[in-house]
Amino acid sequence: MKYNIYRFTTLIGLLILSVSCGSSKKAIPQIKPSTDNVTLTSTSTDVTFKTGAENFESYLPLLKDKRVGIVTNQTGILEDKSKLSPEDHGVRLSKEKHLVDFLIEQNINLQKIYAPEHGFRGTADAGELIVDGKDTKTNLPIISLYGNNKKPKPEQLEGIDVLVFDLQDVGARFYTYISSLHYVMEACAENNIPLLVLDRPNPNGTIIDGPILEKEHKSFVGMHEIPVLHGMTIGEYAKMINGEKWLKDSIQCDLKVAPCLNYSHDMKYSLPVKPSPNLPNDQSINLYASLCFFEGTNVSLGRGTEKQFQIYGSPFLPETEFDFSFTPKPNFGAKDPVHNGKLCFGEDLTEIRKIHRLELKWLLKAYENTADKTVFFNDFFTKLAGTKKLREQIEAGMTEKEIRKTWQEGLEQFKEVRKKYLIYE
Question: Residue 269's pLDDT is what?
């Protein structure tokens, strides 16, 4: 396939902003927010799967001669899938080139990088304060979107004509990249800046499961009334945020999505890089939503080991019931892990088969085997669950089947809403 950035369809031509601002001081044209949730297309006939970031024809023309900001991190990777001959004049890639480097090579006028939780290079612990700085490779300023500055401020968006969003999500409500997406969309809507989302697969894209968040329990680990596992790509989810008017005062963002090519929700997808320090492999990403509930308990889910989100255990669980043990110690991504230096008893899930729903059995087993149940939960559990009901159901002794039954009505309602925003089968 030839990725010729000068060739684009009539549709793309209509989408290009009509006035080039470049780096001049001329007034930036006022663009009315679109409510169409536009999904860009490509003229490609290549059947190879590509992420939205690799779907060059659909978005590079929109960035030409614009001052561009980008929300991304270490997951903004492009892989070489081209079959171009040396004589071709299209875009060629080296293996695992970062989108920032690629855009600079394409003479895109990048102005600023905006970094979510874990930072631009993805090295910070979960919940660790991220500070502003500068990328040592490109000298571009980095603006943190975590800590006290989750939403870009107007002064941080000055000099930006269009903002690009490229983060790899894992499909769970409490994975904070979709919360960052919300605030970025809101800031773009308020400051009249178009947003271009480069879509990426959801590695848990077939799973729609868990309790629906209740709005009184809204937090940065749960912004919207959706289930724990939503079964949408980040591009589809952006369309839902816009379409359901979830932004402040029901404002809407001028949103365009560059879609993945030749992708479906049931396609197996292995992430080329860790989406965050404690999700090291496919197994951890598959188990993440189910084991993350342990963050709201006195049980470790493997932070401080090499099997994060693949094991669980606690000093409070009996050795007689759990024959697996581990001792958390500080490591990359966990400077002070839960039960640091203490022997924990639990289960090793590294070899179990892929799960296709939100599993509660490990949470229930740990609760049932904790002698002093009054110290099992902490206040964070309700934020993760998005409801007080789950904790109350567990404490009341309900079975997993009984608990799951209480989710069904909400899940069916969500699935109907979800249909409106799907880009892929």
Answer: 93
